Amino acid sequence: MTTAREGAREGWGANARGFACGALVVAAATGEGGCERRGASAAEAAPTSNKSTAQWRIYTDIGRGLVQEGKLDEARRYLQRALVEAKKGFGEDDAHVAAALNNLAELNRIEARWEDSQAMFGEALEILRRKYGENHPAVGTALHNLAGCRLAQDDVDGAYDLYAKSLARKEATLGTNHPEYATTLYHMAEVLCRSDRKEDAIVLLERSIKVSEEIGAAHTDACARRMKRLAQLLWECERFEDAERVRRRILSTLEHMNGIDHVKIAGACESLALVLMKLGRLAEATSLLERSAKILARVRGDGGALALASTRLHLAEAAQGMGNDDKALKFCRLALEILSPSALDAVRRDGLRPEIRVGVVVQHARAAALLCELAPDDATGDEHARNAAQNLVAVKAVPGIDRRVLDSIDRAEFNLTRASRRVRQ
Questions:
Q1: pLDDT tens digits for 49-92?
Q2: Are 32 and 14 in contact (CB under 8 A)?
Q3: First to last CA, the chain
Q4: Rounded to whole angstroms, how far apart are CA atoms 228 and 224?
Q5: Alpha carbons 7 and 13: distance in angstroms, whole number
Q6: Distance (Å, rounded) from C-alpha 186 to C-alpha 188?
Q7: Which of 34, 74, 131, 248 has its CA 20 to 30 A from that of 267?
Q8: Which 3-state string (H, E, C) describes 329-369?
Q9: pTM of model > 0.70
């Protein structure tokens, strides 16, 4: 998990694009993880100009630019000035004021200032209700934004209620074949996941994806992201045949969008291979993993090396499953060459996101356990196992890890202990 400011620097691109400025005067950012926006009518987009309306536009544009540069304190000053000028130039109950409030609410959301964010989203919503009435797409968008703020504060029931109201407004005003309708379905599915209602979430995700496909947005990052989430839920529900179907669609979509040798193809191949391994189709999985490894071998940097190590570890597991222990041992050792120093580095680097730190350490523990099984007389296996056990204990104390991540550590400890015990016996 990143800090609020790190999140702003890493993830603001999508959010900043929709910060209300210029003709976009009703709501804030569009994006899977942020807020939505909706343009005002042409008459409102080009109001009678005066000094304050011009300054509102200038201050908003400057604030957006500062956000993109990660200068959030300075951005806040300009966005606050934009709000003042919006009230002067357009009047207290104008949609431009709602847009300015939404911009500040979104900044507060990114900085985890939840009470301020919720208050400003709520104030913007009330302005839009007074101006347009309840049955207007801008009101649906504002309800969606407020729901996201509630969810970030773990108010799952409150968030779902607001998303449901947003969906109803969008259905009434935009119809069901609209990207904003699909976006709210996606977010409602995420709320259901938080309530452990995964099967219900799967239904909503499938509807969201279907809408995207029907409006010609199948080959977009948003649709691909939703398909990945759907495949993950199907995996968690052990619906592996359905997960395979979705993973194949993801691979085809990414090939269409990026070409057959793009780095994103490596991840799609590996994810599909893991499903096939669950289904016992190891030869087909191996072919996909080899394709993934070939792509990743050309990628520079730590990220590429860790991804390659993960693929090699899966190749080792597939080879073991097919009874080829020599091949499995080869890939296991290649994976450990990267994972061993990386795991130690992950334990020491407080700046890394907790899930990344834990993920690397767990991968190393899996590889160490496999080495113990494949080569019980190899002293390096015992050394890797000891180091992996120490690393697992260390990352348990990392702040900010949730129950799901802790469960992955527990499983890695159990498997490592079992493999080490077999060696001793």
A1: 688 888 999 999 999 999 899 999 999 999 999 999 999 999 99
A2: yes
A3: 40
A4: 6
A5: 10
A6: 5
A7: 34
A8: HHHHHHHHHHHHHHHHHHHHCCCCCHHHHHHHHHHHHHHHH
A9: yes
